Amino acid sequence: MNPKPNRAWCWIVGFCLFLCAVPLPAAEAPASAGSIDPFAWPAITAENRPWSRWWWLGSAVDKPNLTQLLEAYREGGLGGVEICPIYGAKGYEERYIDYLSPKWVEMLAHTTAEAKRLGMGVDLTDGTGWPYGGPQVTPQDASSKLVLNQYSVAGGAAFDQALPKGTMQYVGAVSENGEHVDLTANVKDGRVQWKAPPLKWTIYAVLASGPAQKVKRAAPGGEGNVVDPFSIDARPITWHDSTKLWLTSTAIRLAHTFTIRSSITAQVGRRHSSQSSSVYAGMTSRRSCRRSSVKARTTPSPA
Fold first, then answer.
1. CA angle in degrees (0–180, nearest 5) for 59-62-63
2. Which of 17, 134, 221, 248 has its CA 20 to 30 A from that of 1?
3. What region does 93 belong to: left with phi over 0, alpha with psi -120 to 50, or beta?
């Protein structure tokens, strides 16, 4: 006769079977690397940090100090600098570097390379000092000013007057009754001649005079006229600095590449020459040994 099973054990076994049959909830998948928390603080980049203008006094800079200063600026929290070449300190003229010269471009290249290493940005002002200009701006493309001259003429009198230096814009006469007469066509060889009608007249002469301004606080190599900001013909002059900077930096890179390639070619040539000499010497030595061996075998022994 089989004993009755214990009810407690039956309940335990049944509950275990139930747990095995019921699927457990899947574990939450980890957040993908590409998911972005919209409430997370964005990564800080060089553009998010404050920048500062960096005066290059006389462009009297050198590579060790440029590196030291950039590291200090980065440690202080700056994200970048804006270089502005400007006049130098008196007593240090021997350290001045002319703007856009090969030496100056070399210092700029070192600055940008170090800034890239430190995760910083570098900006550059147009020209040196202010306003924009330099030795490339001719008097024809330079800024100018308007000069207004006023003359009084009695009615019936002959007017003959030399005008100041400048480019004539307009000459006209206004009577005391408000009548206007254009005298621009009366100007010849820098003089205006006119026979005034009755009544009292006032003559106005408007001329453009230039160059009107030089670059203020210009850095060494950047001195010259200020460009005319209203001249369309002078617009290509504003490309001068960037074009010269590109050409000079390209020339430096090409010269550096040529020097490296020349050095490599010379080393390969010397290595090839040394190997050729060694091979030739070995071949000559073996040929000499063969000739000596053949000669020794073909030479009869002495009696």
1. 135
2. 17
3. alpha
* Whole-prediction pTM: 0.63
Structure tokens at 155: 């009615």
Burial class from Cβ neighbours inside 10 Å (0-12, 13-18, 19+) for residue 86 reads buried
Q: Tokens 């010497």 correspond to what residue?
A: 281
Concatenating the DSSP letter of every residue in the chain gives -PPPPPHHHHHHHHHHHHHHHSPPPPPPPPPPTT---TTSPPPP-TTTS-EEEEEEETT---HHHHHHHHHHHHHTT--EEEEEEEPPPTT-GGG---TTSHHHHHHHHHHHHHHHHHT-EEEE-SSSSBSSEETT--GGGB--EEEEEEEEE-TT-EEEEEPPSSEEEEEEEEETT--EEE-GGGEETTEEEEE--SS-EEEEEEEEE----BPBTPPTT--SEEB-TT-STTGGGGGHHHHHHHHHHHHHHHHHHHHHHHHHHHHHHHHHHHHHHHHHHHHHHHHHHHHHHHHHHHSPPP-
Q: State the DSSP string of 2-18.
A: PPPPPHHHHHHHHHHHH
Give the number of residues written for the chain: 303
Please give the C-alpha separations between residue 222 and each of 1, 134, 234, 292, in angstroms, as whole numbers.
118, 5, 17, 78
